[in-house]
Write a structure and sequence with these properties.
The structure holds two protein chains of two kinds.
Chain A lengths: L1 H15 L10 E10 L3 E7 H7 L2 H4 L21 H20 L8 H11 L8 H8 L3 H10 L3 H7 L5 H10 L5 H7 L5 H14 L8 H6 L1 E3 L4 E4 L3 H19 L2 H22 L12 H4 L5 H6 L2 H11 L5 H12 L4 E4 L2 H17 L4 H4 L1 E4 L20 E3 L5 E3 H4 L1 H7 L6 E5 L1 H5 L5 H14 L3
Parallel strand pairs in A: 4-7
Antiparallel strand pairs in A: 1-2, 3-4, 5-9, 6-9, 7-8
Chain B lengths: L2 H13 L2 E2 L1 H13 L9 E3 L2 E3 L1 H12 L3 E8 L2 E8 L1 H10 L8 H9 L2 H12 L5 H11 L7 H17 L1
Antiparallel strand pairs in B: 1-5, 2-3, 4-5
Helix pairs in contact in B: 1-4, 2-5, 2-6, 6-8
Classes of the chains: A alpha+beta, B alpha+beta.
Protein name (chain B): YwgA family protein
Organism (chain B): Alkalicoccus sp
Chain lengths: ~450, ~170
């Protein structure tokens, strides 16, 4: 079936004349622009980039939100991975334009950079963070498969000849031999982070998160392994680090968003368990059966998007299984779990009792008592250099030497040393407050939870 | 209840002190590749496979006093030593991981190897899907600075094989 589908698509494209070029590194006759609220305009001059944007795998990103469940906290956060991917491409285009003035590039490398920037997130699925945790999959692996497999993207990239698709996949996987190029798209200060910080701040509507990207791009200098920043531009880089810090605590790590994420992942866990037990679904999740069974094909993966997920969640609101039904209703109607701060060493003392009380009160602790930690999130703070770890940000001093950012900047040093970890304990407060049944157990649970927080 | 953290504690309990963050990173990666139940996500970085998630979990456990972290100055950089602490032992006791969750022999064997060698082994494993000659070419290109010799690379291949055979 997937082959037929692929053929149909190819026929359609041939009709449109998209495949007429053999090596689409030519420029378009006329520059195309996308209007963008963050970068004002996104400029496309290369036929290759234009054709990549038109592929079905890239268009699919329009149906996947950039920030997953954040829209339940910040209603503006409806932007998609499509917007972000175009944004990263635009920043990379500007970076390359600046760097070209200061160094020489191999002929193909400019387009490898631009294509890698555009495609770096193409393997993301709907709510991929939760999905990946529950099903042990990896969007980076899917990105690779989409770039190298039987897809429209691969077809467009292959027209460049040689190992062009492999090179693009290697840049994204950080295994490309030119480390400078890799660092432009993934390092402590790269096109990906710069776009998502600015874009997420814009769409969530928060007033922090701003920094002067133009200035950062102007003070960027290419070195063998990474780009460094002229010392005179340090304050712009400081603002960028502050933006990362603010966005982390205020947006990415928001406890309400995490509550929605906790419920989402428990729904997936429940569905997976029911399926394994042979439960008779009224609405069988046929779109992700193969994901549950770890046999998902590329074509099936490309078909997954958020609409499919919402379709099942809504259908499962009518399921007989009380846990699945309740969790789906909670997610769809935004009746989320409440939380208390949690100290792991105190929590371990009350954990066995909590488990026992939840079970006695008829509330399954596997689904309704959840600890969520900072390490569960795919975002991080800037950390200064530690040998053999991630490459830190380097400043280029007037005498030509390099200094790690936090050694020069008091602001960065101050926030680098701050506590960066946090654990929260999530639970359904509404069920615990309804004390018509198991009142004693529920009161005891609430008192244990609130003691935990020192309330 | 923080099961991934508990597995790491169990690793440290089994191996005793682990010297160096890079070493710990590579030990967990190699163990994961040997089907040990670690779930941390890894990406390729400057020094081979690296997991930000693991770094954060270790940081969380340091802040909860589950593990002891000693920072010592070594030349121009810092080196870190990790050990399970009393509170960590208590936590591990409370979580009650099933017996044999992590393979202590395997982990001890990894801990006995040098961090530089484990970097090579984990890089070979990262490119395992490629033919042997391509893996070698990758290592030459990506690890030029580490100056691994042809013998080192062969040793890494046989080390992986022996890990697989004996565990």
């Amino acid at each position: 079936m997937s082959e037929q589908y692929g053929e149909r698509e190819r026929e359609k494209k041939q009709r449109k004349g998209i495949t007429r070029m053999n090596r689409p590194d030519g420029q378009l006759e006329e520059e195309k622009v996308f209007k963008d609220p963050v970068h004002r305009y996104i400029h496309v001059r290369d036929q290759l980039i234009w054709d990549l944007i038109g592929t079905r795998e890239f268009q699919r990103l329009r149906r996947i939100r950039q920030l997953g469940t954040t829209y339940l906290t910040f209603h503006g956060a409806e932007h998609t991975r499509f917007n972000h991917s175009l944004g990263v491409y635009e920043i990379m285009r500007r970076m390359v334009e600046n760097l070209e003035k200061k160094m020489t590039w191999e002929t193909d490398e400019r387009l490898i950079c631009l294509a890698a920037a555009l495609l770096h997130d193409v393997g993301h699925g709907p709510f991929s963070h939760s999905f990946e945790k529950v099903f042990d999959t990896d969007h980076e692996e899917w990105t690779r498969r989409i770039i190298l497999g039987d897809t429209e993207i691969n077809e467009v990239l292959s027209r460049m000849g040689g190992n062009f698709p492999e090179h693009v996949a290697d840049v994204i996987a950080k295994t490309y031999e030119n480390k400078l190029i890799v660092s432009l798209i993934s390092s402590q200060i790269d096109a990906d982070r710069m776009d998502y910080l600015l874009r997420d701040a814009f769409y969530t509507g928060v007033s922090y998160g701003q920094f002067d990207m133009e200035r950062i791009l102007r003070v960027m200098r290419p070195m063998e392994d990474q780009a460094v920043f002229k010392h005179s531009g340090m304050h712009a880089v400081e603002d960028y680090i502050m933006s990362r810090y603010q966005m982390y605590w205020q947006v990415y790590f928001h406890p309400v968003t995490r509550s929605a994420e906790v419920i989402l992942s428990k729904i997936l866990h429940r569905a997976k368990k029911l399926l394994a037990e042979g439960y008779d679904f009224q609405q069988t999740p046929k779109h992700f059966l193969s994901l549950f069974e770890s046999t998902m094909t590329l074509e099936e993966y490309i078909r997954l998007d958020e609409s499919i997920i919402f379709y099942y969640f809504q259908a499962w609101e009518q399921e007989e299984d009380a846990i699945l039904r309740d969790l789906c209703r909670r997610f769809m109607d935004r009746r989320l779990f409440k939380y208390v701060e949690c100290d792991p060493s105190k929590q371990m003392l009350i954990w066995p009792e909590l488990q026992r009380l939840f079970t006695a009160a008829g509330i399954d602790p596997d689904y309704y008592l959840v600890i969520d930690s900072s390490s569960d999130l795919p975002y991080d703070f800037y950390r200064p250099g530690e040998k053999d770890e991630r490459m830190p940000i380097h400043l280029l001093m007037p005498d030509g030497s390099l200094r790690e950012l936090s050694r020069e900047s008091d602001v960065v040093e101050a926030i680098s040393g701050k506590k960066r970890t946090d654990h929260k304990l999530y639970f359904p407060e509404d069920l615990l407050l309804d004390q018509k049944e198991y009142g004693e157990e529920k009161r005891r649970i609430l008192s244990l939870l609130h003691d935990q927080e020192g309330m | 209840m923080l099961h991934e953290h508990a597995k790491l504690l169990s690793l440290l309990k089994g191996t005793g002190e682990v010297v160096g963050r890079k070493k710990l990173q590579k030990m967990v990666y190699i163990a994961k590749k040997m089907n040990q139940p670690f779930r941390e996500k890894y990406q390729f970085h400057m020094y081979g496979p690296y997991s930000e998630e693991l770094t954060l979990q270790m940081e969380e456990m340091c802040q909860a006093d589950f593990i002891g972290e000693v920072r010592e100055k070594k030349g121009g950089y810092y080196q870190y030593r990790y050990e399970i602490a009393a509170k960590g032992e208590e936590f591990l006791e409370a979580v009650r991981l099933p017996e044999g969750t992590v393979n202590e022999n395997l982990l001890r064997r990894l801990n006995d190897s040098s961090s530089k060698f484990l970097e090579l082994v984990s890089t070979v494993l990262y490119f395992e899907h490629l033919p042997k000659e391509e893996i070698k070419a990758k290592i030459e290109k990506l690890k030029a600075r580490q100056n691994y010799s042809a013998e080192d690379i062969e040793e890494a291949f046989s080390y992986i094989e022996s890990l697989r055979n004996s565990h």
